[in-house]
Amino acid sequence: xxxxxxxxxxxxxxxxTSKGPFFxxxxxxxxxxxxxxxxxxxxxxxxxxxxxxxxxxxxLTSKVGIVSRSTQDGIDLEFLxxxxxxxxxxxxxxxxxxxxxxxxxxxxxxxxxITATDETTTARVxxxxxxxxxxxxxxxxxxxxxxxxxxxxxxxxGTHSPITIAFRDTAGSVCGSLLPTGNVLDVIDGIGxxxxxxxMPVVVLPADRFGITxxxxxxxxxxxxxxxxxxxxxxxxxxxxxxxxxxxxxPFPKMTLISPPRAGGVINTRTFIPHVCHASIGVLGxxxxxxxxxxxxxxxxxxxxxxxxxxxxxxxxxxEFTVELDIRDTPQGPEVMKAALLRTARRLFAGxxxxxxxxxxxxEEPIRKxxxxxx
Length: 375
Description:
- This protein is α+β, with helices and mostly antiparallel strands.
- Helix content is 15%, strand content 34%.
- It is built from six helices and 17 strands.
- The protein starts with a strand and ends in a 19-residue tail after the last strand.
């Protein structure tokens, strides 16, 4: 431990198309305010370059996973996701992140929180942020975790070992119901839209109502100031309608512009998270948009090319994202029976992140040494 620095054991993980440091909950301050200060220092926020931390100067690479063994019946692991703002001193633990979720079980196996079983290992993971539960299965041939495989996901180079995520009870994870307004179609600023939450609050809107095609590149959309401003005006109203209150400083609801598919998928998307166009689409964002496509009367249903089965391919700027979805009509309204998908993850670095001791003055002694480090 160097003078003036606190070293915190951490593993840098890629989960899906996101990445960030993972920590054991026991290695971070129990006090939430103190924890957030540590995370800001670890990632180097607030600073658009995050030059004094391990953040990647992008919302997709300014994320944190905090994991612990669960004491709840039927739950193996608990996962707290933290979205760390790049340019603001803000840590948000309100939303889910299905991409970072993909890295939880590999991290837990490496840390000894769970034991690998033959061929595959499945763990039930609770996302503490929203109460969402998922069964996550990873490959463990010979009871040994592997990151090598032939699974490919758009937005990540190469192939890797497949990770299957089967969500349970995602509907209304943040808003309390699948359709927070009770409608499949609402109108904001004269534009028809669907306000929906099947794991992530999303406002689904037709791209052509904003004077664009929906096939523009991420950079083109980010440079379109009037578009970004108009989307934010709609988002602020949608947030209140969805029961989220003032969302000006919140990273949700996400704004997804839709257009007809061009590459054999169900729908084409451009998603803002919430002010910057996503390089692809988030895991639970894809699940939620797919759900909107399946709901008759939604803004997405008639634009979408409905699949013959349960697999729904959501096109995005860097490829496609396939969701397995089963929705049934019930007397109480549409009910999501199943939402499953394929992701990959990989350990990138394991060691310790050093933060100034001034952000955690209560830590007088060095934390436990990292796994594998000599005593």
